[in-house]
């Protein structure tokens, strides 16, 4: 099997601290939009970083990134000192414990299913180009001056990408054409694409408007086709029906399939056969950041504390991982190192919450804030009605102009779903936070009728989301759990979700 070259756009090249030149401070400034995406292999990374740094310097976003950076450094220092306390025999014992986990995980390795992950190429931009062919071949982005939703592949050559502010993108690519988003259009194209997915797997798992996981085992068997042929056929059918191109990844599980769909993007596919050696060869040199669930912070912690860069390192460093991380995180990291991911179709769980949120240009005026809240309550009430749901807990999420995220919630002794009720209670939460200058507001309803779980247990995700004193104010907070340290709530929740999808755990309780 040909091995993909993972190196050119490894998102893991974090250059920081002592290794950066103090005369070139941009080298140490990494934000989500300086990370490489498909189509950005030849980009002058140094230039992009310099422009992003210079244009962001002094902004509220920049200051917030600096604060987050300081928190991450604290976390890294803390873990380094924990690691220094470990004796050789501690590590050996943890290695033995990890070996038992590895044995157990191996018994769960399932090579019987063939999974395909399909992801449309430059989705919003491709739809806009279909509707306005004069955009073809020109650098364009969907979004505006404050934020870009996506950029086409011509624009990516300049370092322009999703999540980047439009004014920075203009500096990188002066000829960039902007198109305003039109979500109705994207939803309608997505529905067409899903008709094709349905023919290959009626139970396909849609992850967003432009991506889905399909179990194509039965297709391959009943039609006596290879997975490569099925992927080619599906991609052709999507193109014939919609004019959109997509990329596909095929592997024995969803975790690897997702990574594969990005290997030959755009308009390409990559297959990892259902064979243990092939899976292990694929993950051996795979940068950990490519794995869904390993974000920027977890990547840095693993890299700077444990020198883990590629998935294989997670197995080599299993003793330290087991010593420093919680049992759930250790399970997750070891599964990643072994290339084991979800291979059975997860059973649909009943919905736990319903929410909506809006990002906007800074609002500080009280009337403006309450008008936004009313808009959210109206929207949420309609969705609750259409899903025939009523809930007891109302959560308000606020992102301030300085990028601080707060969540505040209250649980009522009765069920609510009407706009007026949502508004009365959410207004109390908002009032208590005034004065405020906001750039995002969100509203969520949870603890629906029939869900009594909140009476006796709280999951980590809930703990994080209900604005608990530990959980509010920062998106990533260390949590000591016995003798281990969990890298962050975010990573922990992702790990939980991952394991839950694998059908391994039902709920995780936290110690209070
Ligand atoms: N999107 C967004 N904001 C982001 C990322 C994505 O609004 N920060 C939207 C626009 C994208 C769509 O979701 O078109 C799909 O996201 P992808 O990450 O799949 O990006 P694209 O499909 O645009 O490009 P690619 O070819 O890399 O898949
Ligand atoms: Mg896409």
TrEMBL record:
GO terms for molecular function: damaged DNA binding; DNA-directed DNA polymerase activity; zinc ion binding. Residues 115-295 form the UmuC domain. It catalyses: DNA(n) + a 2'-deoxyribonucleoside 5'-triphosphate = DNA(n+1) + diphosphate. CDD domains: PolY_Pol_IV_kappa. PROSITE patterns: UMUC (PS50173). SUPFAM superfamilies: DNA/RNA polymerases (SSF56672), Lesion bypass DNA polymerase (Y-family), little finger domain (SSF100879). Pfam families: IMS, IMS_C. Its EC number is 2.7.7.7. It comes from the Eukaryota. GO terms for biological process: DNA repair; DNA replication; error-prone translesion synthesis. It is found in: Nucleus. Residues 1-14 have a biased composition (Basic and acidic residues). Keywords: DNA damage, DNA repair, DNA replication, DNA-binding, DNA-directed DNA polymerase, Magnesium, Metal-binding, Mutator protein, Nucleotidyltransferase, Nucleus, Transferase, Zinc, Zinc-finger. Its main location: nucleus. Its cofactor is Mg(2+). Residues 1-25 are annotated as: Disordered. Belongs to the DNA polymerase type-Y family. This is DNA polymerase kappa. It comes from Ceratopteris richardii.
